Amino acid sequence: MVLGKWKKSLSAGSSDPDQKSEEFIEMDVGGGQIAPKGKLGIRIESLADFAETEKVLKYVREGNIVFLKIKTLKEKDLSELKRAVEKLKRTVLAQSGDLVGVEQDWLLVVPEHATVHR
Q: Is the dihedral of CA 83, 58, 98, 44 positive or negative?
């Protein structure tokens, strides 16, 4: 968590406005993100059909990072793969996560507390 310090001038209870004391207050400037507690889970999963997207989304909702192998579904049915990727993308982005293609046969699906630098 990132904390910033702000300097605030207060009058020191005196009637003289030129006499001021300084006080520091700490504010959370982390953007409201909640850092995960404990270990970060990284799962390696394979997507063989559209129905398995729910399983992947469950893992992401639990806070896991998922390396998703899409080669099986890509070779089986390209239109079903496109449908699955669109569902994953919509749901993960709605939850402030991210979805990134890695090479041709892998996707990286991350929850909101993880950032993918491109």
A: negative
Largest CA distance in the chain: 81
State the pLDDT at residue 67: 97
For the stretch 59-63, contacts whose Cβ atoms lie closer than 8 Å and that sit 24 or more positions apart, written own/partner, are 60/92, 60/95, 60/97, 60/109, 60/110, 60/111, 61/95, 61/111, 63/36, 63/111, 63/113
Domains of the chain from N-terminus onward: 1-32 (no CATH), 42-110 (3.30.110.150)
| pLDDT band (50, 70, 90) for residue 25 | low
Q: 81 and 93 in contact (C-beta within 8 Å)? A: no
pLDDT digits (tens, 9 = 90+) for 56-112: 999 999 999 999 999 999 999 999 999 999 999 999 999 999 999 999 999 999 999
